[in-house]
Design a protein that fits this description.
This protein has one domain: Sandwich (Immunoglobulin-like). The chain is 2% helix and 40% strand. The chain has a seven-stranded antiparallel β-sheet, with no helix packed on it. A three-stranded antiparallel β-sheet has the order 9-6-12, with no helix packed on it. The radius of gyration is 17 Å and the shape is elongated. A hairpin with a 5-residue loop joins strand 7 and strand 8. The protein is mostly beta strands and 173 residues long. The chain contains one helix and twelve strands.
């Protein structure tokens, strides 16, 4: 049995400061948040508190079982009002697709296909609602936490190596 060590670098965009518009990891939105309790006084400001990356780990190309992993995004928004925050995940930098995301082998040419989901069963593809998939909507106040479920398709014949993809995740209060 041959296995390929796979590391999914989905949280790379967090580390690069691509999230939320810049190196300060802050988002500003003009107007009210969706949902109840959001007064009408200007914009909301949110910042990332922590990120647990989706890391597939060791992938077995001969297995008929999908490889799975869970990541987590925690962020907070200033203010006491309740708001609904939209979280979108854009297309794969490798495949250019939301429906068929792929990681590329570092220093090689193989691609490992995977996707990100809002649910553990893998039925709701996490996307942006424009190019594919659906955005997630999270309602609360101050502190938010969302799980990101990653699934790499089974039985892909790929070389041993490190595989990565970069995604843009956007939080809109």
């Amino acid at each position: 049995m041959r296995t390929a060590a796979i590391t999914v670098v989905l949280a790379l965009c967090f580390a690069c400061g691509w999230l939320l518009g810049g190196p300060s990891h802050e988002a500003r939105a003009q107007g009210k948040g969706k949902g109840g309790g959001g007064g009408g006084s200007g914009g909301a400001q949110c910042s990332i508190d922590s990120v647990t990356p989706v890391a597939i780990g060791t992938y077995d190309p001969e297995s008929a079982t999908a490889a799975t992993s869970t990541g987590q995004l925690r962020f907070s928004c200033k203010g006491n009002q309740t708001l609904t925050v939209q979280v979108t995940i854009g297309p794969s930098a490798v495949s250019g697709s939301i429906a068929d995301r792929a990681m590329r082998e570092l220093g090689g040419g193989d691609q490992l296909h995977y996707n990100l989901f809002q649910d553990q069963r893998g039925t709701i593809i996490w996307g942006d609602g424009v190019n594919g998939g659906s955005p997630a909507f999270v309602t609360g106040s101050k502190n938010f936490s969302v799980e990101i479920y990653g699934i790499a398709h089974p039985a892909q014949q790929v070389s041993q190596g490190i595989y990565a993809d970069v995604l843009r995740i956007t939080i809109l209060p």
